Amino acid sequence: MDLYLAGVGSWLPPARTAAEAVRRGDCDEVTASRSEVASVTIDEEPTVPAEMAVRAARTALAQAGCPPSEVAVVLHAYLYDQGNELWSAASYVQRRTLGNDCPAIGVQQVSNGGMAAIHLAAGYLSGWGGRHALVTTADRFAAPGFDRWRSDPGTVYADGGTAVVLSTEGGFARLASLVLVGDSDLEGMHRRGSARGPGVHTGTRPVDLGTPKRHFVAERGNAAVLRQVVAGQQRAMTAALEQAGTELGEIDWFVLPHFGLRRLRLNYLNHLRVDAERTNWSFSRTVGHLGAGDQAASLTHLATSGRLRPGQRVLVMAVGAGFSWSCGVVEVLRELPSSRP
Ligand SMILES: CCC(=O)NCCNC(=O)CCNC(=O)[C@H](O)C(C)(C)COP(=O)(O)O
How far apart are CA 46 and CA 286, in angstroms? Predict the structure, then answer.
């Protein structure tokens, strides 16, 4: 079954510069300069994250020209607080965009959530039938529960929503392959204490991923952990290139997680041996880490800023705590009308 990207969209609030963040005391000068992140999109409204996904989905659905009745499944991926307890953000997205009665399901695969949801949608369409799937992501990493510069040192978290409309009939790009692999031996990196730990944090202490990571890396060794992280990513990439019948040298663009530059080099650029110019870095450094939405946001930017040419191939890579890694090859079939600088 061939699968296509029929529409992509993102909704990003205004960005705050790193210099402004330093002036405000949101982060220190060293952290800002090491990350080389220029700015971070921050929602001051506040907007319910799922509403950000709705705005992105409307763009993607219009681009796809897909009537609500033809969407067979809605998958909404997220990492953090969606604004209401025991509430289906996926159903909110469905009600506000489609109003149809297909399954609407939430996906939590941490920062691999967007690509994992595309992976699940592909399986759903091939297994249960259907011509289109709507995949959205949205998060708002606001204080006091989250410290976007300090909760996960080396990664700066941003607010925003994204959407992808997948189609079995056609689109501006073909999803030539998509692979997801896991290595649960690394799950302890993001866990505080034993599995029976204190549970979700209920106080106003911001999320702290640095402490469990420091303990985990101290126990295993930084080099060994990095090797294991890179090995997982390489397994996904090798399988995705093979599935698409593509060589690494035939890739024109690399869409990578919106990490700070130091972490991006350590985890990706150094062993891919690719210059940052051939990646989404020039865009991602102006946005920050959107959690599950990095890949869709960067694909939207590339596709709607005239950077993608028919015949080009894009290698899309994602990683999530757990760990799980996704990698896919996207073949560009036609240009989308430019709507972004
Ligand atoms: C929790 C949000 C989420 O899912 N993030 C994606 C998973 N995290 C990652 O892929 C980062 C993996 N890399 C690392 O943690 C670090 O680079 C290493 C490998 C632990 C080395 O530490 P560093 O020197 O970068 O501080």
Answer: 20
